[in-house]
């Protein structure tokens, strides 16, 4: 299944000039390092974030680090291609389906192409209260809103040209999920790590469902386990997690088994930009390489149950015309 710890293989010499990429949740952690690196490789990067203030602070920090890394090769983690970073904030609140649709409409109105849609934003250990749309919050933020975003932006991905990619940042925690067709959103599940893992299972199942429907379209779909990464999602001391999860997080920190955010971003960067994967699809990555999966996420019948359930959840936001594009 591939190692979860250690440093993944580094990126090859890549140039992305002329490409446009969206990274959700790009103001911190893995998303920040992903967005900065893709911009340093020459692409235009849209930081799709909920907070304009935090996104602008991230952009300023990216530009300062870029200047330093360009002036000192020892500080650079990649072969930098860009003289200046082309990064732009656009508001996206994945806790709101209306915000997700608005983002897609505003992106289309700008007339930008789209070479990579990198669905990175996520949450764990969120509140018990549902979103304003009435959905379990992890289900909506990690999975449902990204699904809606993909459907709305598929026409742009298809029109952009050869080798456009959708990258879903999943997690090894998909192995600690549950499949319950009577409780698809895990409203009745009290263990937040199981809830989180189930949303990550859904992302992988979505990859297979999309890849089947997009066969021959030259749009690739990948999912990624970034490793256990020292980011905000694992840093809170008041997380209402199970004893076993607390022991796991303590052990990975104490044994220095957690990756830093850049090393955590590497696997998603390979999926998003490494030309060796041109023309491939439905690959699950760990430690920067495709790996095998257990039977549950590969179960096509269950994938179709999830697909139909998801469309029912989104029936007010999805049209038949949109589904004809898939």
UniProtKB/TrEMBL annotation:
Alphabetic keyword roster: Oxidoreductase
Which Pfam families does the annotation name? adh_short
Gene Ontology MF terms in the entry = oxidoreductase activity
Would the keyword Transmembrane turn up in this protein's UniProt record? no
Question: Do you know which SUPFAM superfamilies this protein is assigned to?
Answer: NAD(P)-binding Rossmann-fold domains (SSF51735)
Note whether Metal-binding occurs among the keywords: no
Q: Where, by residue number, does the polypeptide cross the bilayer? A: none
Q: Which InterPro entries match?
A: NAD(P)-bd_dom_sf, SDR_fam
- Superkingdom of the organism of origin: Eukaryota
Record's PANTHER family? PHOSPHATIDYLINOSITOL-GLYCAN BIOSYNTHESIS CLASS F PROTEIN (PTHR43157:SF31), PHOSPHATIDYLINOSITOL-GLYCAN BIOSYNTHESIS CLASS F PROTEIN-RELATED (PTHR43157)
Name of the protein: Retinol dehydrogenase 12
